[in-house]
Amino acid sequence: MTSQETPIQNRLKRLRELLAQAQLDAVLISQPENRRYFSGFTGSTGWLLISADLALFATDFRYYEQVALECPDFELVKITNGLTDVLPTMIARAGAQTVGFEADSATYAAAQEWMAATSDCRWMPVKGWGMQLRAIKDASELATMRVAIALADDALAAVLPQIRPGMTEMEIAWRIESYMRTHGAEGVAFELIVAAGPNGARPHARAGQRPVQAGEPIVIDIGARVAGYCSDLTRTVCLGRPADPERFWEVYNTVLRGQVAAEAALRPGMTGQAGDAVARELIAAAGYGDCFGHGLGHGVGLAVHEEPRLSRTNTAALPAGAVVTVEPGIYLPGWGGVRIEDMVLLTDNGVEVLTAAPKDPILPL
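^ that's the sequence the OP posted. Answer follows.
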């Protein structure tokens, strides 16, 4: 990015490079996070048509003023009925004969409507463009994400000392969410997870009415959303001495060793598969391979799950500038689970661990 370019202008330039490579005249952006990424728009309804020299933003009366304030690089197209009423004019203004659409997010019905309304142009499906560009964070994105990450750290630090036996999972989750919302978050990044005892054996368990008990593992997975950007943090804790100390410490220390090893090994250029394997092989060697069923991590940004992925199936190289989670876990039905999650920035030489929350799991009673 040149010193004269804004982040939005740089993103549009990179999108136009993809347009040229695909030999398309324009692309219609409809996916919500991509719409925000390329325009700066924080509202909920709108479509972008971007060509080599034109950037149009179509929306309805509710957002005319907002687009004018938030999207200075775009020309507003006013919708009074529906997108298909203005789409032919937009495409004609762009002089586009071939138009791409986001096939990985647009519904079949929507795409059919667009094609029917513009029979004089050819529509081509494109996949992954937004995710590809969003994977590498610019300086403004990183600054915002650092705030969201620190806020989750602070919320956990504020609430952990308040946890007592008999509190419900839901009450703990609400205290964490309340802290984040009253300290700068516009919302949570996802439905917070507090999973106590056997509930922790389900990686995406929801916080419920189960009271937490002394001596059992409690998986707490939280994230804040700040200016659109997400954080993601997991810690596993225990109120007082573990009821089954041998199992608890064996499982906890195995997960921690896997995470530490992965964070030390991750480098740009290695595949997501190779990164995943560092922790997975260590956990498997300890006898818990079948108990680690999800990927090691995922990208985070405007969405809490983005590219790139640290998984057994991702053979693509990890790019410098991506922010990913490192979150190995072991889940034992009937007993519970342990997951430890940091967010890290892939740098030229390795990773910078962005999460600062401590990893001592024992909470004093």
